[in-house]
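Subject: Protein record for review, amino acid sequence with backbone structure tokens
Why sent: The fold of this protein is of interest and is recorded here as tokens.
Notation: Tokens come from a learned vocabulary of local backbone shapes, not from coordinates.
Attached in line: The record itself begins immediately under this heading.
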Amino acid sequence: MHMSDALLSPAVALTMCAAAGAAVAYSAAKLKKNEFSEKKLPLTAIAGAFVFAAQMINFTIPGTGSSGHIGGGILLAALVGGDAALLAVTAVLVIQALFFADGGLLALGCNIFNMGVIPCLVVYPLVFTPMLKSGVTRGRLAAASIASALLALQAGAFSVVLETTSSGITALPFSTFVMLMQPIHLAIGLVEGLVTGAVLSFVWKAQPELPDFAAASFESRPMKKVLALFAALALLCGAILSSFASSYPDGLEWSILKVTGKEELEASGEIFDKSAALQQRTAVMPDYDFAEGEGKGTAAAGVIGSAATFVLAAAVCALVSRSKKKGLPN
């Protein structure tokens, strides 16, 4: 669901950048005020690295000619809380846009909002958390994961349609576009819900003292098992499974293809040209591949991107944690 710059007008793109920036700042301030635990820092960073790697694995949606990948917002929020999860998702999306040209630079605000703010700050507290108020069981965990992922993907897909329509992209009429985006992301959301439930159930079984997810105190709890699990999963997904990802267009590309006959639209205008030129300079492995573009760099991109996400997420979380210690104003 990574939007390109061509789907947005400059006004909508910049407005959403401001909105997403405000949400990230709010989450950082909230974490700082509530004394973000240093024990949460490595889990936030390593789980963020796993989400980066997992997003490289597009799975085929049978009978559609489309594919999808997990967003990871609900999974991250369940592990470390919505605010820390938003910082991790933001780190993932920034690394993807800057180093791999996945999602436009001007569209970064929209992508953070659609894949970060909606699942982490809206769906997680309003759906996932209430469904586990009576206690954590395998069944409740699965139900909460599936319901939350479905709602997050539906809301995110609808947000994409609204942003595109508000931008005046006449090539994608609202009624036609929305009737393609919502059903395909329903299927993608179901798969994400199943994956999220499976991972969280494994974490719960391996370390049952960790949940109630995100609300637990991390100070006195051993995290080695969980950290090792997500490090192994990140390496497995990034270095090995990413090479077997579906080549079909993702849900957004598929929807655009069905409407316009092509997977991507072209942007025109000075601000778009400057954004594209900047991204061309920063993207060391466009489309997760070496410059030759023969598909040989996928595994390397998975490992490099996961490592970069880990470093960025850890740095941001450390900055938030240390600013509280230094007595910076809230």
Notes: The first strand starts at residue 59 and ends at 61. Strands lie at 59-61, 66-68.
